[in-house]
Amino acid sequence: MKRFFEWLRSYILYACIDPREFPKIKTAMDRNNQAALHAFSRIAVVLFATALLLSRSFQIEVKIDQNFGYSFGLVLSLIIFFANYYLVPRKPRLLPWLIYLFDCVLFGFGFLLAFVCSPNQLTISLLVMFAIVPMFFTDRPYRLAILYFVLELLFIHLVKIFKPAEMVNLEIVNMVVYSNVGLILGTYMTRMKLERFVFEYRVNELTNQEQLTKYLKSISNIYVTMYHADLDTGMFMELRNDVDALKPYGAMGPHVEQMLHHGALQTVDPDFLENAKKFLDLGTLKERLKGKTTITHEFLSQSGMWCRARYVNVDFDKKDELPRYVIFAVENISEQKQREKALISQAETDAMTGLYNRNGGVSKIKEKMHDCLQGMLCLFDIDKFKSINDNYGHQAGDKVIVAVADAMQRTFRDVDVLLRLGGDEFMVFLSKVTNEELGAQAIGRFFTELNKVSIEGLEDYNIAVSLGATFFRGGKVDFDDLYRQADGCTYESKKIEGRSFTFWRG
């Protein structure tokens, strides 16, 4: 029972809406009430004018009091209509009083018809007003309840004075029924409207410019710099700007082009500057962004931080039009680059030796060939390696493979590509080694390192390899051609006992 009375109290006072919401939706309520007053006062003017015109034109027999009521209602309705149209926009506080006045006009005319013009007839128009007027405007339910309580007392008092005694009880019962129906329907309609206003307020709260800026700033926390720019006017607004980001001339200003150019000069590594300028170029940006949600470019900053610059097309919904508004952001992707590098390294690296595996190493060599970087390709395997595995076990064989790889890393340079093809087969591409003299020197250093190798448990074992070498001097030779040449030379080297190498001279 207590819960029911709490609900009833909330329904009567607030239409079950959180009281804290009322200040937020007051503007919507006033806008709705002004529109309703505009419509209903205009309807009232038309009805009062029509009734007055008909009663005079066709000489309909009506009491002078009824014509007076038509005239009085018409005048007041006109006053309310024009006051609502011209004064309320400048003085919003006038609106509630105009609504109360309009209600009084309607009910006053109803009382006039019921008790002055036709006291001996059952009340009809006034009771209809009791039922429908509460649905006209949106107000707190208790105010409507107070108004109806006063009207009901006045109705009961006038019924006892003007109506025949046999009609009094029926009129009071009808009034109670119609007025309560009106109150219930009016409060229900009010609640529905208020819930809609609250919903619209929350939607607007999510979409208004101030709130959008707040959300954009929270999103921008993942960026080192972020701007909103108007490409037509050159205006930009800073949403975020950290120390190592592009530095603008101010928080807001008409200098997007200068800001980007100045920032690029200050922050982008010189080796990446030319491509960064092409990406930042606003002259071609509209065409590059047309029909796309975003475009990106990665560069290295002067402080060694990897960054990703991004343009976001704010006008993407207008796919057939050139964009006007864009968001420019720069993201620190150094950690991402490190993870990518680690994953690539893991995918390209031979787990046992730390050299490139077949896929990774061959790809690197092909890249060098594609860039026309000349060099020598060497292919070799370990002599009699199978006997090591058979006589000493696979662990000993693994030690030999690791020892050969270590010797390669000590001998050759960082710019060279070292890889284990698989098993006991290895390959190396020596950049800028383009003749047999330089090649023989490099291979000799490698053989010297192999001679220094000492493996625990295989102290008397000397690692011997059979090596074939060929030169890439540009042209239409591809990797497969080089591989076949080096492999053929390796086969020739195997015919020689001990460490040996053969150059391709085809």
Considering the chains and any ligands shown, give keywords for the structure.
six-stranded antiparallel beta sheet, 17 helices, five-stranded mixed beta sheet
Give an account of the 3D structure.
This protein is of the alpha+beta class and 506 residues long. The chain has helices spanning 2-14, 22-57, 64-87, 94-117, 125-132, 141-162, 165-207, 209-219, 256-267, 270-280, 285-289, 334-348, 358-370, 385-392, 394-411, 436-452, 479-493, and strands at residues 225-230, 236-241, 252-253, 294-300, 306-313, 325-332, 375-382, 417-422, 425-431, 465-472, 500-503. A hairpin with a 5-residue loop joins strand 4 (294-300) and strand 5 (306-313). The radius of gyration is 46 Å and the shape is rod-shaped. The termini are far apart.
Topology:
Blueprint: H1 2-14, H2 22-57, H3 64-87, H4 94-117, H5 125-132, H6 141-162, H7 165-207, H8 209-219, E1 225-230, E2 236-241, E3 252-253, H9 256-267, H10 270-280, H11 285-289, E4 294-300, E5 306-313, E6 325-332, H12 334-348, H13 358-370, E7 375-382, H14 385-392, H15 394-411, E8 417-422, E9 425-431, H16 436-452, E10 465-472, H17 479-493, E11 500-503
Parallel strand pairs: 10-11
Antiparallel strand pairs: 1-2, 1-6, 2-3, 4-5, 5-6, 7-9, 7-10, 8-9
The gist of it:
The protein is 58% helix and 14% strand. The chain has 506 residues and is an alpha+beta fold. Helix 2 (22-57) runs antiparallel to helix 3 (64-87), helix 2 (22-57) runs parallel beside helix 4 and helix 3 runs antiparallel to helix 4.
The largest β sheet comes out as: 6 strands, antiparallel
Q: Please report the number of helical segments.
A: 17
N-to-C order of helices and strands: HHHHHHHHEEEHHHEEEHHEHHEEHEHE
Give the overall shape.
rod-shaped
Mean pLDDT: 85
Number of strands: 11
> In order across it, which strands form the biggest sheet?
3-2-1-6-5-4
Tell me the fraction of residues in β-strands, as a range: 5-15%
Stretches with pLDDT under 50, minimum 5 residues: 243-253
In angstroms, what separates the terminal alpha carbons?
106 Å
Write down the oligomeric state. single chain
**Rg calc:** 46 Å
Helix content percent band: 55-70%
What structural class do helix, strand and pairing data support? alpha+beta
